[in-house]
Structures are given as C-alpha cells and as structure tokens.
Amino acid sequence: MDFKEHIRAIRDFPKPGILFYDISTLLAHPRAWRATVEALAASVRPHRPDLLVGIESRGFLVAAPLAFELGSGFAMVRKMGKLPGPTVRHSYELEYGTDTLEIQEDAIRPGQRIVVVDDLLATGGTMQAAIQLVRGRGGTVAAAACIIELAFLGGRSRLDVPVAAMVSYDA
C-alpha cells in the first residue's frame, strides 16, 4: 500500500512556511491504518520490545495500537506537568530555547527492551531526548519507529539506534 496516498500535506500550518504532514486522513481510513500498524509491527518485531514508549501526542496514536499488535506494554513520554504521580524529567535544546520531557518514574524497569515511537521524525531532537530519558531510567533502547520521516532534515543521523519509517519525504 502507498501510505503517502493517505497522508495529506497542509501548507503554512502551524505557521507560514511549514508544510505539515497530517496523519488524520490515514487514521480515518480503516484499511490504510490497519496496513500501517501491520507494517510497523513487522519492522519493530525483530527488536523484541518489552515496552513501546510513545511521544506526546500523535506518538500515542501510533504506539498504543502497535503495542497491542506486538503484545508489548506501552508507556507515555509527555511534556512537563502532564503525567500524574512521580515523574523523571529530561531537558533538551531546541533551535530557540529548551523543552522538557517526562516519563512516570515507574514506567520502565532496568533492562527492559524499548522501542521509542512517534508519528514523525524531523530533526530528531525530540526522539533523541526521549531515547536519553529512557536510558536514564535503565531501559535498553533497541530501535525507534515512526510513520513519517522528513529525510531532508537529517533526524536519523542524530539517533544511535535503528529507525523504522513507513514513509520518507526528501523535500
């Protein structure tokens, strides 16, 4: 299946000059969504994850059904202040400042095999921060996975784990 046929590009969102790749049209198409989850599962399964860690917020939409398909657990990485209970934080640099991600303190057991999941890989900053957060909790990051990779932004090169992407855009 050509997943690109089910992903809509929206110009100037969320601000002028940005081309936003919208997966809501993919999610709305039952056959395409099922094929996406199955293709991701085939790519991720060889890494034998105990747990999938989804990055807020569209990463949750990808990681949760993927975890179900694989028989793995699922944990959330969110922006600071969004998770209940004790959390662990990791701050990282953005182009114009910093951001902070959190995971619940007890979400990862040391030695668990983890695959970090998001809907889109762009510059790799958020994915790398999530990987560092997982490692800080003792998890072994086996791979990263996403639906869309913006290859022209070079995010894959910032990551030191295998990356599975269902769709790649070169410009």
Q: Any overview of this molecule?
A:
26% of the residues lie in helices and 36% in strands. The radius of gyration is 15 Å and the shape is globular. The protein has helices at residues 24-28, 30-44, 58-70, 125-136; strands at 8-11, 19-22, 51-55, 73-79, 87-94, 97-104, 113-117, 120-121, 140-150, 163-169. A hairpin with a 7-residue loop joins strand 1 (8-11) and strand 2 (19-22). The longest helix has 15 residues, at 30-44. The chain has one domain: 3-Layer(aba) Sandwich (Rossmann fold). The chain is an alpha/beta fold and 171 residues long. The strands form two sheets. Strands 3, 4, 5, 6, 7, 8, 9 and 10 form an eight-stranded mixed beta sheet that branches. The protein has a two-stranded antiparallel ribbon with strand order 1-2.
